[in-house]
Structures are given as C-alpha cells and as structure tokens.
Amino acid sequence: MSTRAIILAAGKGTRMKCDLPKVLHTVCGRSIFEWVIEAARAAGADDITVVVGHGAEAVVAALPAGVRAVVQEQQNGTGHATRTALAAMGGVSSDTVLVIPGDSPLFRPDTLTALVSRHHESGGACTLLTTTMPDPTGYGRVVRNEAGVAAIVEERDADEAARSIDEVAVSTYAFAGSALTEALTRLTTRNDQGEEYLTDVVALFAAAGPVATHTIDDHRETLGINSHDQLADAEWVMRERINRRLMAAGVWMQDPTTTYVDATVAIAAGARLYAGVHLEGATSVAAGAVVGPQSFVIDSTVGPGARVWYSVVRGAEIGEGADVGPFASLRPGTTLAEGVKAGTFVEVKASTIGRGSKVPHLSYVGDTTIGEDSNVGAGTITCNYDGFRKHHTTIGSRVFIGSDTMLVAPVEIGDDAVTGAGSVITRDVSPGALAVERSPQKEIPGYAERRARLADSEGE
Predict the structure, then answer these.
(1) Is residue 451 part of a domain?
(2) Catalytic site residue 25?
(3) Does 453 map to a domain?
(4) Which of 12, 66, 304, 319 has its CA at 20 to 30 Å from residue 231's CA atom?
C-alpha cells in the first residue's frame, strides 16, 4: 500500500492584500508550500499532487521536480478541490491518500508520519488530525458522540454548543483511497458558503463506522497562514525550531530571539553568532567563525575562524581567518583569501584579494585582483567604470598602495610596487617601483593676514 498526498493550495489569500499567491510567501527561506511538500515526502508520500488556483502559473513554476499540479478552475470548496486532484491522479483505490492544506508550513514530518500510521492501525476509511486550542475561532469543531467522532462543523455553520468545543480539525486527513473517492460523490453545497466541504465526508464515514483521530498537543504546528501577522507568527515558530536545532548541534548564539537563520543555511558546530545576525540563502558558516553583532549575510561562505561584524555580505567567499568589518560591504563576486582584512567602511565588489592582504578602511575595491600580503591605504578607490564599461585593476603581491590613491582602470601595479599618497595612477606601475602623481606644493607667505584684511574690507 502506497501513500499519495494531495496538497490544497488554490486559495487566494485575500487577507494578505498583495498579488503574490499566498503559498509563495516564505518562512525562513522556503516558500510555504515547499515546507508542506517536504513534510509530505518525509512522511512517505511517493506521489504528490498540488491543487492550484489563484496565481496558478506562478505556483506551478515554483513547484519542485516530480510534483504534479492540477488547476481548480472554479473555487468550489475543499471537497471539489480534492475531487479535482483525484481525477488527475488516476486510480487510488488501494492507496492511502494524505490531504494537507498548502498554507500550513509548520507541520512536522513526524506528525504526518504518525497520522498515516494511526490510519493504518485503525483500518478505517478516515483518520483526521486534531488539536485543542484556547481560542478555536475560525476552525471546524470536532463533534463527538458515544461512538466517537460524529462530524466536523465549520465555524460558519456551528451553533453555540458546537462553538464551545475546543477540539478542532485542522484540514489534514488520511483516507482510504476508494472510500474517499466514493464519499466525494455524495457531497452537497447546502452550507453557509455554498461550497463542497471536505469536512462533510467525516460525517458520512462516521455514519458507517468509527472515524479515527490523531491528536497533537502543540496547536502552533497546525497554524494556517491567511494574513501577514500569521505569516510572522509562523516565521517566529520556525526560527525557534531552527535555532534550537543549531544550538543542540553545537552552534553558540548570544541571543536566539534576535538571530535569523534560513532553513537553507549550513552552520558548523563551534561557530558563534552574536545578536542581530541574519543568515539567508545558500550561506555556510564554518567552525570557529564569528558572525555579528548586526550582520547580514546571504548566499556567502564564511570560512573557519573568520569574523564578520556590523557588515553586509552578499554572494561572497570569506576565507579562513579573514576579518570583515565593522561596517564593510562585500558584494557579489568577492573572494577573500586566508587572513585578508576588509575593514571599516570598505566596499569590495567582483574582486579577489589574496592571502594576507589588507584593505583596512575607507576604500572601494571593484573588479580587481590583489595578490598576497599587499596593503591598500585609506581612501583608495579603484576607478573601474568609465561611464560605459567596467575595467579591471590588477595589484600584485607585497604592494603598498598609499592613502587616497585613485587607480584608474584598466591598470596594473606590479609586485613590490608603491604608490604615493594622493596619486591618480593612470598607467601601469613596474614591479618594485614607486609611482607618484602630484602637482608641486606651493606656499604663499602672509596669506592669513591678507585674507583677514579682505574680510574686514567686505564687512565695511
């Protein structure tokens, strides 16, 4: 017997008040429905169908490989959406069909696995996932009688007695495929919304025999996202999970409540994260590295023993023992080798800086290659753009670039060369040479006295 999953992701998400389909909003670096798909796969679903509607083209384009999409052209309710999926899936008579809402990213794979296991143990037609909530407003109530579950009553259709029930259904089920297929043909639209409710099949099954349940204690796991405040709540819960997992694996965090790590980020044991750190995308942080306080790193590599503090790093590689910041900006295409320093108010873009070289402060390095053990003085700029094209600068090894040097690309500074402070270098500099470009300094004696007399005369 195989497990096949239907993920219901056709909703518009009106309360989100934006054009992006609800399920494409992200939680800790992954779209909402990617979390759901991952949980379904981990629970053993070997065939997954996603029902799409609002923004179908964008949602289908974002689906992982191997996931089927089916469009619900008319939004006629969850029962209709499930029938639409079954029609696209072909025969499911001997399978277990797992139905999950596409807007619930917090389901743990273990929860869905336990739901499927409970369904197999019961041998019945339907097993539903339930939880209790201190405030169940908006959720379908699980109505029980002496025999067990009798029905699920949606909030809109519930009377006062049903609304007082705190056990709720969370739109997640395991069905026997043949029983589900037959029950869906008996759904009606006689309800407040005039839609085919999937919840109504529970009453049909309960009339024929017991309906099993699997109840979880942490109701936060069932959170469905319909608004930006619920999205923020889900992000908070997921971030807490990620941070606790990382700390259990040996990552030090000064303040987990202000540490933001995407699910796509890899952090080795022994790394240290200070408060205010944001790590996103395909970022990795090696053992012994220190990130923060107040740093943003995306799609970048931070090597062993490196430090990044009060800085922004995007698409960069930071080598072992390198030091970035404070207040540095590393842009895409930057590679810092072992022991490199990119210091205070330094910006580096599309450049490679060799082992042991330093750009300590107040400099811009763009489209540049720097060799080993070179020093770039304060205020240096590689003038890489002529208004039409970008040009490359090459600085050799053991070079000393004097403060406030303008290197007008394309230009090459040879090994062991020196540039004088305040120079504008427009031609290549030979290895071992000193290049100085300055106007002769002039001195005008008595200038202060003349200036004072001029000021007095203007005042008259």
Answers:
(1) no
(2) no
(3) no
(4) 66
The reply to whether 119 falls in a domain is yes
- CATH number of the domain enclosing 265: 2.160.10.10
The H helix count followed by the E strand count for the chain is 9, 39
pLDDT tens profile 407-448: 999 999 999 999 999 999 999 999 999 999 988 889 999 999
What tokens were used for 313? 């790093």
Is the same domain home to 119 and 202? Answer: yes
User: How wide is the angle at C-alpha 33 spanned by C-alphas 30 and 38, nearest 5°?
Assistant: 75
Q: Does residue 212 share a domain with residue 347?
A: no
Catalytic residue among 80, 214, 278, 361: 361
What lies within 8 Å, CB to CB, of 132 at 6+ separation is 166, 167, 168, 215, 219
d(CA 368, CA 353) in angstroms, rounded, equals: 8
C-alpha–C-alpha distance, residues 319 and 13, integer Å: 44
- CA angle, corner 410, sides to 406 and 411, nearest 5? 65
Number of domains in the chain: 2
- The alpha helices in 127-176, defined as continuous H runs, are 160-163
Q: What amino acid occupies position 303?
A: G
For residue 202, the enclosing domain spans: 3-222
Name the token pair of 413: 């500074």
Residue finishing a domain among 177, 202, 222: 222
Q: Are residues 42 and 91 in the same domain?
A: yes
What strands lie across the sheet with 411-413, from one edge to the other? 266-267, 284-285, 301-302, 316-318, 334-336, 352-353, 368-370, 393-395, 411-413
Condensed to tens digits (0 to 9), the pLDDT of residues 150-185 reads: 999 988 888 999 999 999 999 999 999 999 999 999
Position 459 pLDDT exceeds 70:
no
Residue 258 carries which DSSP code?
G
Structure tokens, 12: 């518009």
Predicted structure pTM score: 0.90
Comparing C-alpha atoms, which of 277, 231, 230, 214 is closest to residue 251? Answer: 277
End-to-end CA separation in angstroms for the chain: 103
- 169 within 8 A of 130, measured Cβ to Cβ: yes
Identity of the amino acid at 302: V
Q: Does 239 fall in a domain?
A: no
Residues 341, 272: one domain? yes
